[in-house]
Amino acid sequence: MHTCIQVRDAPYSADVSNRGYCKELRRLDELAESTPLDETWPADPGGSVSFFAVNSNFFADRFSVSAPDRPVGLGQRVQIPIRLSGDKVRSIVFRQWIYNNGGDIAIPALAHDDYGGSLSDGALTPVAGGETGNFVNIVPLALGNLEVGIAVYFQDGGFAERFFRMKAVPSSQGLESFRGYEPGLLQVPEEPERRRSTPLMAEVTYKGIVGVIRLYNLQGVKFSIRPPPGSSMVEVDDKGMVRALHAGEAVVEADFDGVKWEYRIHIGDRNPPQ
Q1: pLDDT number for residue 261
Q2: What structural domains and CATH numbers belong to the chain?
Q3: pTM exceeds 0.70, yes or no
Q4: Ordered DSSP codes for 224-240
């Protein structure tokens, strides 16, 4: 039996992040299956991220957040209630990210508000109001489960951070455009068990957001395949991962909260007739 002790050694890093040796460390996709939406953590449960600044701060339990207890809309401003105590606050920073295929950390997008403030990471300004007296605004920039970290630096050197997840779903509120990227030519593998999935990707724009939000995961988007023979050519799962079944062409229609886009899929035969 062993116990993992997480020791931060640099900003945005931790020296305990090998999940093969430390079973307590779990990525967001694993947590989503076993924890409620509104659960929060004092450290990144995956062991990879910290906002801790070396040699300039000490941990202080003066900060908490209330995470959303239900899915939130992509590109929509979400109020996150926060509680602060102790000495005066020097600054509040945040970051949101996803895990690409369960792998490395990836910031979903580089988008800004009308005033030039980053919506992916950076400084946060508390707003007075709400049940806790203060809240901050977070705009989710990826579909499915994304992780958010918020850190508070106090004037006396105290430091606190909290992590939570949000489940973002497609939203047409304020949507200006929804456009898909056509995938390249898919190939039918020689052996069915070697079929690989190719992600369908898209980009969206919203009022009040400067820049494009690129979506590498289309979880929550509804898909249909046509014409009727098309379903024998490809298959697509609920995250927009498409697999080639037989050579030919098919159209995959994506429904993003009522706004639609057609992906034209071309499937080549690895061994075409001579």
Answers
A1: 96
A2: 28-169 (2.60.40.10), 175-269 (2.60.40.60)
A3: yes
A4: EEESGGGGGTEEE-TTS
